[in-house]
Amino acid sequence: MKTSYDLIVAGAGPAGLTAAKVAAESGLSVALIERKQNVAEILRMCGMMIVTLSGKYMGERVVHNPVAKLLSFPHHGFSLHYDGPTKDFFAWHIYSPGGERIAFGDYAANSGRGTEGRASAVYDKSRFLAGLLEECQRLGVAVFTGENVIDVRKKGEGVEVQCASGKHFNGVFVIAADGRNSRIARVMGMNKQRGFYGSVTSIGYEMTNLNLPEPYALHMPLVQSGDPPMLGFIVPRAWQHEGEDTWLVMITNVDPTTDHESLFDLFTQKSRFAPWFKNGRKIRKCGCAGVMYSPIIHPFKDNVLFAGDSGWCQEAEMTGAVMSGWKAGTAVVYAMLEGIRTENGVGSYLDWWRRYHIEKLDYNVFLRNLYMPILCKDEEIDYIFSMIKETLPTVLDPYEVPEAMGKAMIKVIPNIQKERPELLNKLTGFSSLPPEVVLRKTIRAGFSCTFTT
Q1: Looking at residues 70-90, what average pLDDT do you find?
Q2: Domain tally for the chain?
C-alpha cells in the first residue's frame, strides 16, 4: 500500500473533500483519510443551509445554478457540482419565550417573489458529499475510510500521520479538516492559545406534519432564558419523507449535563410553541456536541494547514468550509509547483484566512448572541421583542443579525427609556461585558480539549 503523498487531507467533510479535489485536479498525489466508513452518511445533526443565497458571506455571493447543477463562488473563482434537491425558505423568525416575534424578512412578500425573494435554501448534504467524493475518486485521490487520525507530527521536511488502526501516512503537507472538535488541533497544541467559551450540545428529530405559522422559514424560538438558556430551531429539509414535507426540529443549550430529551419534550409538548408539533411525527433522531473556541489566528504549524471548522469559532457553514478547503488546496498546489515546501509556500492561504475569516467574522459578535437570553428574564425579553415591530432585512448570516438588531434597538431606545429605564440600564451595562464574564457558567460546565496528549 502506498503511504507517501504530496498532500494528506484529514477529514472528508465539505472542506476536506474540496481541498482534495482541487489538489488532485492539479496533479498532486493526494490521500484522503476519514474516520467514518461511509463518507456521505450524515451522523451529526446539520441544518444543511446554504449560507447564503441572498447576501454576502465572507465577501462571497454564492450562486446555485440548478440547470448546470453547480454551486458557484464567483468572487473566489470556482464552482462545485451539486445535483441534489434544494428547498427555498423566505425569512428568519426569532421568538421570545412568550411568543413575541422579530422577523428578518417579510415572509409573505418574499415567498410571493419565489427564488428572487428567498432568504436562502437548504440542500441535501449527503448528496453533496457523495458528489464531491465521486469527483475525488475519479481524479485519483486515494480514499481511506474507517481511519481515525490520532497523531500528526513533523518528520523531516514533511509530516507523518498516524491512525488508530496502526497505519502511517507521510505527506509533504497535511490539511486538517477534521471538524470543530479537531483532534489534530488538540494534539498539535493549537488550542492552548485559544479562548474557551463552553460546549454546545443539541438533540433533535427530523419530523413531518408540523403546523408552523410560515412553513418555509427558519424558526428560532427562545424557549426559556437563564444560565444556560435553551434555544429551539426548526429548519426545512430539502427532501420529502413518503410524500410529506420534512423539518429538522432541535433544541440546543450550553450545558452538556442537561437532560436534552426532557428539554425537547418541554419545547414540543409544553411550551407555548407546542401547538406547532401537536400532530408531528418523528422520523429520525440526531444530535451533536461541539466546543466554542476563539478561532485559530495563524492556521499553520509544521506543514499542517487547518481548514474549515477545525480552526473556527463554532461553524464555518458549508460555504465557509468549501472556500477554506479550496484556498488551502490551491495554496498547497502552488507550494509544490514552486518547490517552496514551507510556510512561505502556502502564504496565500494564511493571507486568505486572515482577510476573510479573522477580519470579516468577529467571533465576539457571534458569542454576544447569547448575552440577552443569559442576562435577561423571560418577561424582559418579551418586552424588548414587542417593541421591535418593523420587519428587518432578509438576512441569514449570523454575523449580520446582531447588526440589524442593533439598528432596530436604537430606534426604540427612547420608548424603553421612558417605560423601562431600569431595563435600558441593564442592557447598556452588559453590552460591553467580555464573553469571559457573561459565559463564566458556560465555560465551567463545558469540556475543553486543550492540551496535547
Answers
A1: 98
A2: 1
Tell me the per-residue pLDDT of 173-210, one tens digit each, with 9 for 90 and over: 999 999 999 999 999 999 999 999 999 999 999 999 99
DSSP designation for 210: -
What residues contact residue 116 under an 8 Å CB cut-off, 6+ apart? none
In a domain, 227, yes or no: no
Which CATH number belongs to the domain containing residue 354 in this structure? 3.50.50.60
What crossing angle do the helices spanning 14-25 and 125-138 adopt, rounded to 10°? Answer: 20
Separation CA 343–CA 57 (nearest Å): 27
- In terms of phi and psi (left: phi > 0; alpha: psi -120 to 50; beta: otherwise), the region of 242 is left
Radius of gyration of the chain (CA): 22
| SS3 label, residue 202 | strand
Residue 452 in domain = no
Secondary structure class of 58 (helix, strand, coil): coil
pLDDT in tens, 107-148: 999 999 999 999 999 999 999 999 999 999 999 999 999 999
Using the predicted structure, report yes or no on whether residue 447 has a pLDDT greater than 90. no
Instruction: Give the residue numbers spanning the domain of 309.
Output: 4-84+124-194+296-358
**Strands 149-155, 300-301: parallel, antiparallel or unpaired by DSSP?**
unpaired
CA-to-CA distance for 352 and 72, rounded, in angstroms? 18
CB 201 within 8 A of CB 443: no
Query: Which of these, 439, 374, 363, lies nearest to 231 by C-alpha position?
Result: 374
User: Is 372 within 8 Å of 381 (Cβ atoms)?
Assistant: yes
